[in-house]
Design a protein that fits this description.
There is one protein chain. The protein is mostly helical. It has helices at 43-60, 67-81, 88-105, 110-124. It is built from 4 helices and no strands. Helix 1 packs antiparallel against helix 2 (67-81), helix 2 (67-81) runs antiparallel to helix 3 and helix 3 (88-105) packs antiparallel against helix 4.
Length: 125
């Protein structure tokens, strides 16, 4: 039921979709990873990744955050700042890592935790 929102707002598809209408010699598959730099990605989702990158960058420079956590945060920035070409599973892995780090870091990471959780819920659909 394409377009059915189930009362939860719009849904977006970020994976492979294959349709075969009979025939023979059907080859190939169109991959749609839904990367943040693609025109088909809702601008609000791309903006959320940009905002999350800003929050992560702030925490990388925050002396209240331990060195090991700052390094782990910095390693997530390529997915957040240049998501074009990044597969959805890498988004998910990065967002789950950020939520785990936020719990370790504590109050300073509260805004990052909230936004990462919101993104997880949007991507999960």
């Amino acid at each position: 039921m394409n377009g059915d929102t189930g009362g939860r707002g719009p849904r977006h598809h970020y994976g492979d979709r294959v349709t075969v209408h009979g025939g023979t010699h059907n080859i190939g598959i169109q991959h749609n990873y839904g990367t943040a730099g693609e025109p088909g990605l809702p601008p609000e989702l791309a903006a959320m990744f940009t905002q999350l990158a800003t929050l992560v960058t702030q925490l990388v420079g925050d002396d209240r955050v331990g060195e090991e956590d700052r390094q782990s945060l910095a390693e997530t920035l390529p997915v957040l700042t240049e998501p074009a070409g990044t597969e959805r599973r890498h988004w998910r892995n990065t967002l789950y890592l950020l939520t785990n780090l936020a719990h370790d870091i504590g109050d300073a990471a509260g805004p990052m935790l909230g936004l990462a959780t919101e993104l997880i819920n949007l991507i999960r659909g």
